[in-house]
Amino acid sequence: MSRVHDAVIVGAGFGGMGAAIALKRLGFDDLVILDRESDLGGTWHVNRYPGLAVDIPSATYSYSFEPNPYWSRLFAPGTELKRYAQHVADKYDLSRHMQFNAVVDGATWQPESQTWQVRVADGEPIEARYLLTATGFLSQPKMPEIDGIDLFEGHVVHTTDWDDDYDFTGKRAAVIGTGATAVQLIPELAKRVSDLTVYQRTPIWVSPKVDFSVPEAVQQFFASVPLSQRAARLVGTSILEGMMVSGVLHYRQAKLINQLAERGCRAHLARQVKDPALRRKLTPDYSFGCKRPTFSNEYFPTFNRDHVHLETTSISHLDATGLVTSDGRRTDVDVLVLATGFNLWDVNFPAIEVIGADGRNLGEWWRATRFQAYEGVTVPGFPNFISLNSPYSYSGLSYFTTIECQMRHMERLFTALADRDATTFEVTEEANDAFLTRMRDLVGDSVFALGHCSTANSYYFNQHNEATLLRPTSTVSALRAAGSFPLDAYTYA
Ligand code: NAP
Does residue 41's CB lie within 6 angstroms of at least one atom of ligand 1? Predict the structure, then answer.
């Protein structure tokens, strides 16, 4: 008989670490944290492209219970996030639970033993009472399906697999994609290459970025008076809540905020790009918030440079030396950068095969019914399973808000379990149905339902064109629900 661990957590990013901290606070110490990568940090370990930084103020983009007074900038560079992840792992004694290069194939609920069996490629199965998946929303890179891409003989790099050894200096480069990643990368790349063509399918709304380095004296002040950093966090979070949550999710009630945000982006573009034709190409034709907007002061001006070209004609195919657009024009390049983002809905919900009670396959069930999870955390038919990257789970703008809501939910749930001397929980169909109905109703107030989103190509929408990623409530409401959901939403055994 193999040993039964308290829990297996799949993913050693900020989600998995938050879940581990929550479990440790609840008294569970026999944890196994598995990650397919070679180190902790999730997205902040994987992403290393030039220009990488948070696009949410750092005081907000961090655990509220573990503030870091030493962020060097308002929007910290990616390397500092990776360091912060290591600091959290050290402080909360998480590293000893972690196993890297551990690719999880799947997990199956075993009704006889009331445990999960987790299958790891090239390893022995692991058995645990609880299974938590923290595999990230944006963790399965999307490779574009473009004819002839395999024929291209130059260098190809996806932004999630950056080649640190490749020297871009003086090269002719092409970037496919104009999402938040490309917005950070393109200005940096333009400084190095001799020629840069950016292939844009859908433009992105870009806000001005109020960013500055945080003087050491201020960092020391944050360290000695933690309340001051809390205040800074509150200010940053409130602005984002207004702009990105109220203006997007509560569009019916707060349309004006949305319109102001859109106007701010338009004015930003007008200030930075004087050529009307170029400006038109860079202006989205969908409502602000239909897809994730971003912040940058350097993105638009990059297109004013002589050696940078914005290509909006669709790509027909690639061949050995370059790209050909549908009107027959070709651009030869030395290097092709794929800033093509992530595949969420085909391969990431869930990221591993999860088989629950009665052989229910989570991925198949989500696709056969609807994408759903009670409070974005648990799923009927899947006992003792916490799914951190679930439909309607992304709450607020910062991923840390989502994680902390889920930690709070876990605390209430596992405390109820302990109070009943029980070890197995399962959300009821009724509670899950009621939650799904409520979310679907509330999405009706959002820009996704009331704005113009059809041309946005947004990953907020699933393959059935339903906006099932974001939780359509305020952050405060999500936090409140996490600490007060009815305990009879679950059965305990
Ligand atoms: P993304 O937003 O999904 O953007 C992918 C881009 O590639 C889009 O412009 C897309 O065009 C284009 N694309 C994909 N397949 C294509 C194809 N076959 N042909 C032409 N174009 C194609 O991905 P991302 O830029 O990596 O950003 C993902 C998310 O990561 C962001 O929304 C943000 O939440 C997060 N992010 C965060 C930070 C941070 O600092 N916190 C930094 C970067 C990214 P379409 O729009 O037409 O599909």
Answer: no
